[in-house]
Amino acid sequence: MKPWQPGDPIGMGVVYLPDKKTRAAYGKACRDLWIDSAAKHAISLPTLHERRKFIDSYPLDAREALKDRIKELWEARNEHV
């Protein structure tokens, strides 16, 4: 096994050794991946009420990042309208 490096896959079943140099970057990459997935899910929900309920169910420390990513995706999606 080798330490994770930026650009390596995340969440693909590959196991990396903990590495002091890349631990924070790997953690951020993992968080970015699940925030992106959650934001796409929130946008796909059919009603505003369901979207708000989904966002409100997220932990406080991740909620702002989720809202920011939803905003980015929403604006990119509606840019052509």
Sheet bearing the most strands, described? none
**Helix content percent band:** 55-70%
Number of strands: 0
Cα-atom radius of gyration: 15 Å
Mean pLDDT: 87
- Tally of DSSP helical segments: 3
- What's the shape? elongated
Helical/strand content category: mainly alpha
Strand content: under 5%
How far is it from the N-terminal to the C-terminal residue, by CA? Answer: 47 Å
Low-confidence stretches: none
**What order do the helices and strands follow?**
HHH
Give me a quick take on this structure.
The chain has 81 residues and is mainly α.
Features:
single chain, 81 residues, mainly alpha, 3 helices, 60% helix, 0% strand, elongated
Describe the structure.
By secondary structure, the chain is an all-alpha fold. 60% of the residues lie in helices and 0% in strands. The chain contains three helices and no strands. It has helices at residues 23-44, 48-56, 60-77. Helix 1 (23-44) packs across helix 3 (60-77). The protein is elongated, with a radius of gyration of 15 Å. The N and C termini lie far apart (47 Å). The model has no long low-confidence stretch (mean pLDDT 87).
Any chance you could write out the topology, listing elements then pairs?
Elements lengths: L22 H22 L3 H9 L3 H18 L4
Helix pairs in contact: 1-3
